[in-house]
Each structure stands twice: as structure tokens, then as C-alpha cells.
Amino acid sequence: VMYTFYLSPLSYVALCDVYLLSVSSILCSTHRVSTYVWLLLGYPLLAVVHSLACLISWLLVFTIPVAKMNARTLASILLMPPENLSVSTCSKRKPQGCETRALLCCYHAVNWYYYKYTVDGINVFAVNLLPLVIVSLVIGYVDKGNQFASSEVKFATAVGSIIPLSYYIGMGIASISAQSNFAVGAVVNATFGSITEMTFYITALLRGHRAGNACLQEIVKSALTGTLLGCILFIPVNSRVALSISPDDILSSYQQSENNYTLFHSHIQPLVYTVSFLLPVAYIIGLIFTLKTHSHIYDIHVGEGHVTGHHGAVVHWSRWRALAILIIATLLMSACADVTTEHIQPILSQPNISQYFIGVTVLAMVPEIPEIVNGIQFALQNNISLSLEVGSCIAVQVCMLQIPLLVLFNAFYDVGFVLIFCDLHLWASIFSVVLVNYIFMDGKSDYFQGTALVVVYLILLASYFFAPSPAGC
């Protein structure tokens, strides 16, 4: 009887039936000996089975109802006297002539909308990916000789760990900004808004400088360009970012050699430092304009219904908890970035894949996956304005914060980073901005225009894939 009771729910759940575990109140007496035998012989085996079923169902996300049933079974059902329990379905349930009550019930074993499920305000996918961070750090720092995992595996796990950590950093920033005044919110947003990318870029530049590997500089430039292209084409934005990218990317028309060495240090480099100082100032002024002095403009638009959807900042964590999570996630991000750059060389040595392609895809878009998903969700909710704003914020931070900060970092700690982009980066950025500006000039958007942008993005990725690797790499 016990065998039928405990194994049949797993098979019934797959059929999406309704299960009722009933306790007969008429059986008020318990057999102590049988209960002890059950706890010693039956419970351990079924606890392992239900634990595995709970773990697998939770990781699959869409079967979380099954995971909840197994968790409830582990916590309470299996600890009850087995002779007091029975299993039945609604279609086969017959009157028993006694009082019963339902202990466990499942109406739907699979629900596709569980991708929105949250745990304490955290998306379930971010929760499930958190153990990957621990695994990547353990194999990255403990297995130095690559005895248990290859460099390719360590690189893949470290890059995958960036996804949940960037999500936690974004959640921490949102929670702190929602509970703070303008000044604190602006400082937190400007400081930690690009911490994911900046951590990887600076770590890569430092490791490349110490190892004498100039290829990592090209990877950083490719990642910067890839992030910008993804934000412009994958999450279409206004062409106003064109004014931000031109001062830096225009340097790609120069090639550093003996003939123009003096030209670069006498004229080009001072211009780069000047622009890199002015762009963050412009970004701060923009924050003051948007969030402080002219915030009433945006409040009027929201009040008149020009913007629809969920805009209010949702506070999931307290201020100190968000700050602690933000600091811990940043430290873990630094460790994962170190593991990534340490084991990236075997990936770069692949003869069939261009290093440009690795930079503009994996290293550029993986940290932005949480923001891309948010933008797509807003678009699916018919909230196009907020969807475009997500991509716009990322693009603006790349142009007005990340690139200038890398230049200023190199000015204070020389790692040999020269802001000279190749022609492919330059024309891809210019073409993307012009195309988006032309498509959205009429202020309308439809699936055909979105498909056209995605196709152009894929064409640019193909160009990077078949492009030769940087000289000397």
C-alpha cells in the first residue's frame, strides 16, 4: 500500500490530474512500531527520490508546481503515519463513509508562465543560476592544473556566472535608488550601472598588460562595440547616441606606426583625454535634468497616459540589504571576470573563429542578457517606450561612461590601452545609428521594422565571424 501511495503521485502528476492525499479521521490510533519501521526503512529511500524530483522540477522552472508538491511531501506528508494516508484522483474518488481532508493538491503540473516566478523579488532563473557562480569559482581557483575541468569549461561557466550576478547588481541598484533621494540614486546609478562591464574590461586590460598580450585590448574594444550594436539593433533606440560615439570612434582612421607616433601623442591623445573628461560631465548633467530639475516633464507624460505599463520602482529589498547584495555581487563579479580572462586564451586560439566575433557576441551581450530580457518583456506588454529606454540607457552608459572611464584608467595606470578602433567597428556603429534613425523617423514601429533590424544585426555578426583576427593575435 505504501509503495502505491508514494510512487503513484509522480506518475499522476505527469498526467496533470488532481491528487488528494486524505487523512481519515476515523483512524485516530497510530501503530508506533510500524511508524518507526517506516521512518527507518521507507522514509530515507523516498526522501532521496522526492528530493531529486523536487530539484529537477525546480530547475526546469515550468514544472515548479511539481517541485512544490514534492517539497510539501518531504516536509510533512512523509512524516505522517503511513497507515493514515491514502491517494486518489477526483475522477476516481468514492465515498469512504468517513471524514477526510485534502493535504496536497495539484491542478496543473506544467505552467508556461512560471518564467515570471520570483523568489523574494528575484527571478527564478537568476536563483537557479546562482550555484553556477560557486561552481565556476571553485573549479577556477582550486583546479589550477585543469585536472578536473578544461580551460574551455572554466571559461564557459565563468561567463555564464556573469548573467545572475549582473541581475543581482541591477536589482540592488533599483532597490537603493527607489529608497534614496536624487543625489544618492544618481551616484549609485553612475557608479554601479556599468560595474559589470567595467570589471571585466579592467581585469582583461590588467591581465593583458602583465602577460604582454595585446589581443585582450582588441577584445575589450570588440566588447564595447558589440554592446553598442546590441543595444541599438537588438533593442532599437533613438539615434541620439550618435553624438556620443563619434568623438571616440573617429580615431579609427589612424594606425599607430612610427610615422604618426608624434601625431598621436601630440594631437590625438590630448583630444581623447579631453573628450573622455567631458562626456561623464554631460552624463551627470543629463541625470540632473532628468531626475531633478525637469522631472515634472516626465511626471506630466505619465499622468496624461503617454507612457503605459509598470513604471513605479518596486522595492524588493531594504536599503542595507540591497547594499550588501550589491557589494557581494560586485566582488563575485570581479572573481568571475578574473577566471574568464585567465582561461580565455584557448578560446581566442581557435583558428575558425575570429576574435572580433568572440568580443562582440559572448563578452558583449552576456552581461546584458537581464536587461535585454527586461526590454523584451516590456515590449510584449505593449510598453515600447520603456523597452527603448532600457536599450538607450545601456548605450548611453557605454558611450558616456564606460569608454571615458577606460581612457582615464589608462591615464592613471598605463596598461597600453589605445582608443583606436578598427574600420569594422567604426562603420558598423555609424551604419547602425543611421539605420535606426531612418527607420524610426516616422515615429512608428511594427514587426517588419524590428525584423529588419535583427537581420542587419545578424549580418554584422556574420561580418565579424568571417573577419580576420587582429594583427599579431
Automatic annotation (TrEMBL):
Cellular location(s): Endomembrane system
GO biological process: intracellular calcium ion homeostasis
InterPro entries: CaH_exchang, NaCa_Exmemb, NCX_ion-bd_dom_sf
GO molecular function terms listed in the Swiss-Prot or TrEMBL record: calcium:proton antiporter activity
UniProt keyword list: Antiport, Calcium, Calcium transport, Ion transport, Membrane, Phosphoprotein, Transmembrane, Transmembrane helix, Transport
Chain ranges of the Sodium/calcium exchanger membrane region domain: 322-462
Membrane-spanning ranges: 6-28, 40-64, 122-143, 155-176, 182-206, 271-291, 322-341, 353-374, 386-409, 415-440, 447-467
Keyword Hydrolase: no
Top-level taxon: Eukaryota
GO cellular component: endomembrane system; vacuolar membrane
Chief localization: membrane
Membrane topology reported for the UniProt record: Multi-pass membrane protein
Name of the molecule in the record: Sodium/calcium exchanger membrane region domain-containing protein
